[in-house]
Design goal:
There is one protein chain. A 9-stranded parallel sheet has the order 5-4-3-2-1-9-8-7-6. It has 2 domains: 27-414, Alpha-Beta Barrel (TIM Barrel); 444-505, no CATH class. Helices cover 51% and strands 8% of the residues. By secondary structure, it is of the alpha/beta class. It has helices spanning 3-13, 50-62, 74-77, 101-107, 126-139, 156-162, 169-186, 198-202, 207-228, 232-235, 249-270, 276-279, 300-313, 333-348, 363-385, 389-394, 397-414, 443-456, 460-475, 481-489, 494-505, and strands at residues 40-45, 67-71, 118-121, 149-151, 190-191, 193-196, 239-245, 283-287, 318-320. It is built from 21 helices and 9 strands.
Length: 512
């Protein structure tokens, strides 16, 4: 039977189900899904200095990656400059160090931003890094309205699962809606948020909790934007999502299907969105970092391949595959290439792209999709009874639920009720030595010197004026994005801009 006849036969058998590309998009947001175009292969990368990371990005593009994804170091994620005392020992360690416009220029040197889409995993200072990116694009001759990509900009999951927050929730939500508003009018192709279940799952949640907590956070962002006065069908099509893909292939595929359907119902019936694009849950997937083992790390290649398959069976729009050595250190160029090749084999050799939602109609998968939806809805309703996601975070409810799920998972491993190959079963005495990516220990000093030289060469009066304008605006209700752009034009640093807001708003201190 030809592929066309096979698909026609399958569609007839699935007649009671909606088709791919139709509301509520259980089977996928596009009619053909990957038949005409594969998902975006967006490998997450960044380490050391901007110059070092730029080399890695160019290498990945040469190897066939179809989108960039920037990992920032902890000081950058916390809005600190590399010469800040709190940055010592962390500069460039888990991502690239970015503090100035010069840094962002170096990060994307000779990378055509009109053709490459970029995802930036940054939250508390998301506005600031997007402003730097837009300014570098402008210098390349690429208008704000031409650039495409995603900024994570999801602060609620930082309070819940990750910890790289700066400001209290109210002020953080203001920054997020400022980004929504500014991008709606000036950077229309940009995904203004990537509402993340990934870090929630990595912290220990179940699949149903990942759906529920992510969609509850999404509801909070939508409500905040509406309260600002933004029009739903203007900002909703640019909302995007980010999920983990773990080892249970069928559960993970069903999870993505359930989340897509639930979002479509929420946006159409609860919020009254009219545009079809506002109903579509578009998402990026990363394979599960927390599932990787330091024991027999080569086996992680198999785990990653199965997790990538689950993401594709579930209809992801873009995908990052982890490298097998990530339980030991940052990926080397060789392990990063193998991770990319894993996606390429899946896309071009496996045949999985021949039909949208290949698992659709399976009794087990359909039942599992329904079950996950029911479980997630129960959790969402409980969160709403507490006053919504922000209130549930402030009360510690979501954090406690994740902690208990993580405890149950670990208990099952220790009781051998859950098998982890090489960890609690099938151990070997030793494993082949794996080369580890090393970060130059002199990075801290070099980056600190660069930032000090940057400050010394600027017009300090112009910088001070721009920072004071930002401070005044922070006390009021104006959109801060334009003030941040002008501060960077005046050669302010990331730490200085975030520092102004720290002084005006304070820092968040958990009460539990």
């Amino acid at each position: 039977m030809s592929n066309t006849n096979l698909e026609q036969s399958l569609n007839q058998r699935l007649a009671p189900l909606e088709q791919a590309g139709q509301y509520p998009f259980t089977r996928g947001i596009h009619t053909d899904m990957y038949k005409t175009r594969a998902w975006t292969m967006r490998q997450y990368a960044g380490f050391g200095s901007a110059e070092e990371s730029n080399k890695r990005y160019k290498y990945l593009l040469e190897q066939g990656t179809t989108g960039l994804s920037v990992a920032f170091d902890l000081p950058t994620q916390l809005g600190l400059d590399p010469d800040d005392a709190l940055s010592l020992g962390e500069v460039g360690r888990v991502g690239v160090s970015i503090a100035t416009l010069d840094d962002m220029r170096a990060l994307f040197h000779e990378i055509p931003l009109e053709r490459v889409t970029t995802s930036m995993t940054i939250n508390a200072p998301a506005m600031m890094l997007l402003a730097l990116y837009a300014l570098v694009a402008e210098e390349q001759g690429v208008g704000f309205d031409q650039i495409g990509g995603t900024v994570q900009n999801d602060i609620l999951k930082e309070y819940i699962a990750r910890g790289t927050y700066i400001y209290p929730p109210k002020q953080s939500m203001r920054l997020i809606t400022d980004v929504f508003e500014f991008c709606t009018h000036h950077i229309p192709k940009w995904n203004t948020i990537s509402i993340s279940g990934y870090h929630i799952r990595e912290a220990g949640s179940t699949a149903a909790q990942e759906i529920a907590f992510t969609l509850s956070n999404a509801r909070a962002y939508v409500k905040a934007a509406l309260a600002r006065g933004l029009k739903l069908d203007e900002f909703a099509p640019r909302l995007s999502f980010f999920f983990a893909s773990h080892n249970d292939i069928l559960e993970e595929a069903a999870k993505f299907r359930a989340a897509r359907r639930m979002w479509a119902h929420m946006m159409r019936h609860e919020f009254g969105a009219k545009l079809e694009k506002s109903w579509m849950l578009r998402f990026h997937t990363q394979t599960g970092g927390s599932t990787l083992t330091a024991q027999q790390p080569e086996v992680n290649t198999v785990r990653t391949a199965y997790q990538a398959l689950a993401a594709v069976l579930g209809g992801t729009q873009s995908l990052h595959t982890n490298a097998f050595d990530e339980a030991l250190g940052l990926p080397t160029s060789e392990s990063a290439t193998l991770a990319l090749r894993t996606q390429q084999v899946l896309a071009f050799e496996s045949g999985v792209t021949k039909a949208p939602d290949p698992l659709g109609g399976s009794y087990y998968v359909e039942a599992l999709t329904d079950q996950l939806e029911r479980e997630a809805l129960e959790i969402i309703n409980r969160i709403e009874s507490l006053g919504g996601s922000v209130a549930a975070v402030e009360q510690g409810f979501i954090q406690k639920e994740i902690e208990e799920a993580a405890y149950r998972f670990q208990r099952d491993i220790e009781k051998l009720e859950r098998i982890m190959v090489g960890v609690n079963k099938f151990q070997t005495a030793s494993s082949a030595s794996v080369p580890i990516q090393k970060i130059d220990s002199s990075t801290d000093a070099r980056r600190a010197a660069q930032v000090k030289a940057y400050r010394a060469a600027r017009d300090q009066n112009a910088t001070n004026t721009a920072l004071e304008k930002l401070a005044v605006a922070a006390r009021g209700s104006e959109n801060l994005f334009g003030f941040v752009i002008e501060a960077f034009r005046a050669k302010a640093t990331l730490g200085e801009i975030c520092g102004v807001l720290r002084r005006e708003w304070g820092e968040f201190q958990p009460a539990f």
